[in-house]
Write the structure tokens for this entry.
Amino acid sequence: MIRLQPRAEPSKLMGYIAPLIALVITLLSGMVLFALLGVPVGAAFYAFFIEPVSSLYGLSELGVKAAPLIMIAVALSIGYRANVWNIGAEGQLILGGICGGAVALYFYEVDAWYVLPLMMLAGVIGGMLWAAIPALLRTQFNANEILTSLMLTYIAGLLLSLLVHGPLRDPDGFNFPESRLLHDAATLPIIMQGTRLHIGALTALFIVVIGWVLLSRTMLGFALKVNGQAPNAGRYAGFTQNRLIWFSLLFCGACAGLAGLNEVAGPIGQLLPSISPGYGFTAIIVAFLGRLHPVGVVFAGLVMALSYLGGESAQISLNLPVAVTGVFQGMLLFFLLAADVLINYRVVWGRARTARRPSSEHGASL
Amino acid sequence: MGSTESKSFENALVSMSGITKAYPGTLANDAIDLVVRRGEIHALLGENGAGKSTLVKILYGLLQADSGHIEWQGVPVDITSPARARELGIALVFQHFSLFDSLSVLENIALGMAVPANKVLQQKIIDVSSRYGLPIDPDRQVYSLSVGERQRIEIVRCLLQEPKLLVMDEPTSVLTPQEVKELFVTLRRLSREGVAILYISHKLNEIKALCSNATILRNGKRVASADPTAESAHSLASLMMGDELDAPSRENRTPSDKVMLRLNNVSVIAVEQHDVPLRQVNLNVHAGEIVGIAGVAGNGQDELLAVISGEQYLSDEQALLLDGEPIGTLSPGQRRQRGLCCVPEERLGHAAVPGMSLSENAFLTAHHRSDLRSVGLINKRKSRRFTERVIEQFNVQCNGHLSLAGSLSGGNLQKFIVGREIEQKPSVFVVSQPTWGVDAGAAAAIHKSLQAMANNGAAVLVISQDLDELMLISDRIAALCAGQLSKVHLTESVSVQQLGLLMGGASIEQGAHV
């Protein structure tokens, strides 16, 4: 029988190394996977991990993909530290895209400086409103936010689909389910000529700094951490739990909403039935891979962004199915969680050792 | 098991030798020897954490020793499970009872013994309970019974198995003094009938009164065997603690007339199943005095502390006055800022966050009253200085201000928590079970600091189950029973027996006439 025995003092160092271990095992497993698929391992690796970042354009694309992941993952990390399990960042992202995109389409005729800030504001508010629903349900009715936020994600996806098939559809678009293309005043400025890298990348870095200061130096961050680790201690110290739940969810909604707006006003440039390749879900992996720390999240975000690019590249040059991206992301999270278990527990085989065997079983008289 | 014991083993019923058990990071039992003879009441004495519970769990088959062996009536045995222990004739009365509230006494006993709840069993229960002076009614529902009565069910359940060895783990920690007396009568009768009793406790007076033999454990090792009747309580204590104890003595204070904390008809209804409703609690605590609140656990102590600390909201702000000002509707933080500091019973997870450093745990409550922030942000240097002051003044054994709270021993963490609050110089200090699970050295240090606070003019309220503690440090004393607070008496004018009356639910009217 295999048992898990808690370790007296889990290694702190291993806690930091675990993401790297998980990464290495993921790569090794990937090799086995490629070999089994009959794909030359070397070529597959080159296509997946090297080719996407071997050019300046590739690097800029890495930034384009990493920005939304990092923005959302920083916000998720803050919530997860406080035991607020928002799984619905994807839905909040979509609502941000819808609201920001709707503002852009409303001002379609207007070419003014204030359009973009208004769109950003609308994106942030849209994400926050969507996150406010699970916050309200949790604080008022104690409904589990994991379920409510996840379910709202599917509603958000259908809402977007409804809108681009209906009210927001391009009137000159031959009935294709997409909106008009946003014009220049409504798209994000590019920060590197000839690439798609937009100022969203800078917003992401800004949010990293905010998240870091929040968690390490502010009362609010301290209250969030206490609440996550020992809610009773939080109450004793006078922190109001409901306020922390509201903050965690609204902050994440704001970041995810902004990320969604950045997609619509950035690389996509219009509203489509799908505006995100699952950034809101992948950000959950990013948050854990980054050890729920804003700086860790930056590195984790880059790694996960690479898995998106690598998947596309492997699809093009090796004809591998795009699902390979999901497989890599899933393996990475799985191995990371496994490493965490082994840091906190040791595996013991068999029963605990018993005392010396008796020579006879029964207490008969001598 | 109708075997007769061998004379060559000097009547040894059970003999454990060289029992060793390691947990991650600690050696809970280090080559412990223990011999219990037929019909004796044998004390297993030691501080919290000395290894008593581990040893008993090994004896009862709940844990397996890493090494060492056990002989039962001279024959080596391997006690692999509690079922095997019961088969041998070992019965264990747990410190915490495992009874179903919604079932009757009879049904509970039947469940525990895996026999049908019929007339035969009922008659047996009545026989056993009358023979040993353990009055219980088999048809009563368990939820309606007091803690003492519940313990009787457990004892009767054990006696029905006709054990040769009855193990009792801290049986009196939940009893009033009267109930303790009754229990001792029963135990002595059992002993006369040849049942050996292994009596686990850290209360020296009980052991002197009851036991004929004692094995004393310290830090997982057996340090001595002694005859408790021949030793003084003081010499037993020094065997148990290892070094001479600098215990505080009773002090006489003259409290001022100024009421610092006033509870006005505080009532709280129970929300959850195990909450105890508070019923019209009235209490004044003056500047410069220590008021003690006695009571068996689960009589509203947690609720009372939560009301005072602010974790439990009151709708009426006048229900609670701090230095004359209504604070009933203020948050815990606001109360702290006004000088009211509280320490709840539960150390880890309530008074401190186990996974955070001492520095962060100091900040947790101290930021309200001590200047630990600059421009709104946490100032780690100031937190560190504050923490190091607490560590030094209260002699907290740790690896510095970055040690995790969860890594400290119970006593050291308690010293840290109490120190953290005292360092904030509160005008009213409320503490629940200040020395629960704390070794005698740390307890003495905590008692002295509470006395010092009162001497400096603070109003101190101590909620505790430990009567010796309350008799030692409090100037006035009351008891909490089923959410109701008794009249407050001068400690000098109350005997332990009278206090027991106050603590017992049925005798509260008698107590009021004392």
